[in-house]
User: Fold this.
Amino acid sequence: MTKSVDDKYNPTIIDLLSIPKVASGILNPDANKIAYLLIYEDLENNKTIVRCNIIDTATSDIQQLTDNGWALGITWINNKDLALRRLLPSSSNGFQIFIYKNLVGEGVQITDHIGGVNSYFNFKDGFVFQASDKEKAHQNEEKKFGNYTHFEEEESTSAFYYVHIEKSIEFLTKSLSKLSSKKKNLVRPVINLTSLLGKPYSINSILVSEETSSIYLNCTSKDELYYSNDTFTFKIDIDTESMMEEYLSSNDQFDLTKHAKVYKLKLPKGAVIEQVSPDGKKLLISYKERELKQYVLSDLWLLDLTKLNGKFDQENLKDQFVCITRDFDRVPINIVWAKAGIFVSFADESTFRIAKISESGKISKLDLGKAFPRFYFSVTDNGYITFNGISSTSHKEIYFGKPKNETDYELTQVTHHMKNTDDWDFGTVESIRWKSKDGLEIQGIIRKPSDFDPKKKYPLLFLIHGGPSATSLIALVEDDEIYYYPTIQLCNKGVIIAKVNYRGSMGKGQEFHEIGVDNVGIGDQWDVESCIDHLVSLGFIDETKIGCMGWSQGGFISAFLGMHSSKFAAVSVGAGVSSWYTYFITSDLRHSLNISGHPFEPGKMEIYRKTAPISGIATANTPMMLIHGENDQRIGLTSAMELYRALKEKGVPTELFIFKGKGHGIDTPKEHYACIMLNYRWFGHYLLGEELTFSK
Assistant:
């Protein structure tokens, strides 16, 4: 029975932070078990705990596999054995690989790599893993005259290794049984494979093919994000058995090159291998054929390795590409190639969906019922599926799907971690549409109080998503409403929350994605202000009490509106840009701009100027709260300082909160709570007339 509004509980900020959140469901090969993560925020100790649970898909029985610390990178070795990357509370050495045989015990630590393991993959009775070579890093520093960084020219210390599972267990057993004086004769079965590349590269991702004994590396020339399109791809055919045998008995005379053949695949710049076919004969590659700009969508291409006649390093491999998403017009996000086919998740306006794509390019969108996946999913070779599902009326939980035919699935919700929130009041969520100033149709979402009365006038508060290659979802609660913004609490106080999937957002194809190029800020203002006009025309908005908040790109849009619009009572800018010129010369992601050139090109500086929030300083009078990370490399603290100083000099109410030690996001529970509370107090004052105070 549905409870009345009066019987529902209004959750506090701490309530929402404290509830467990599911993530990363992965099926075992037989699809009878799902390993997934459960995330807890420990406010008292200011740390996040990530546990791994196992659920039986037939009975829904749950087994807790890990306890404290962090568990990430779920990998099934077979149907009964599981591997994880774990960070133990007592460890100062980063994430290491642990295996759980028969899903019991504390797990066996397979690696002890200095600085930790970044990623790993099943390969030939062991794992290939990517990490930093700390010894190489130390050597690089020793070559310098002093303590400095050669900006954007530092040599990468990225490396990849092979570790054998059973021989690692043997090593650990012998280490425990031998005397300390004899332990030095033991050799850990971990081999650094990086020298096969011939020179330093930044290794961004690894793929493997058991069938062909091949390792594929997606690399860039440097570690900096600016070099993300300066790509290099390698295929390494390797005999791990003979390699490990010689390594363990070599007495430092080991010759790695005898056991591996390396090919440098001459793919076009910006091309990245996403998946290897189950038989190892084909590659699935993402590539932007038109140009390598942030606002151009990638397509998926097949490369049939059997047609290369073993000449994997031949010129013009692009001529062998076959595009399979020419008619898709969406950004593939998570991609899985199983024996059942190629599956991709993608944004479809304000939801996510999964499609099956044939090698001939046929797109079949799966019917998964009301719940939609939140980015990632897992598929077995026989087509069973699991994902973290969410909807406008339900929280994120783990779902399990049995295929009925090519596109239809029998879907079951197998976890119920949010059951205790059934009587909590989250308001109601619905999709809306309107026409922007230039006639472009914009879609968004509004959250209304559960006791909404269309005859009343309500304050309106916008929450603008980041990106811009992202989208606001028609979800009961999104992550940024738990970790950054008090939308639920303010909605329960009578504030209507609006989200705008502004031009450039994901989920509406290439034309919509790039329509805001060279018109950022300005076009976004059209989209938000036209939403205000639309909602005001419906008769339930108080035009004197409108606010806006957002993080990153959402922070930029909030800043632009605060500096250029007269419709807002107050705005909150989280990690937002003030000047695109400053962003271009300081950001680690400056090539991501929705501006078609750099500011030093003839005629471009004016675009950089007029599309920046600070250009509106002459007429700005909207109270602005700024929240920024002290060590933000994406959007430097200079942006917040510029807006703060400018508005202060004009006498406009402004506050700046700098989060110590934080980068472009907030990652600790107490600081999440602080960020939400600051926004709660700010808009409680300007939209609800409450006293403005920033202390407990």
Remarks:
- The chain has a mean pLDDT of 94.
- The first strand starts at residue 21 and ends at 27.
- Residues 669-688 form the longest helix (20 residues).
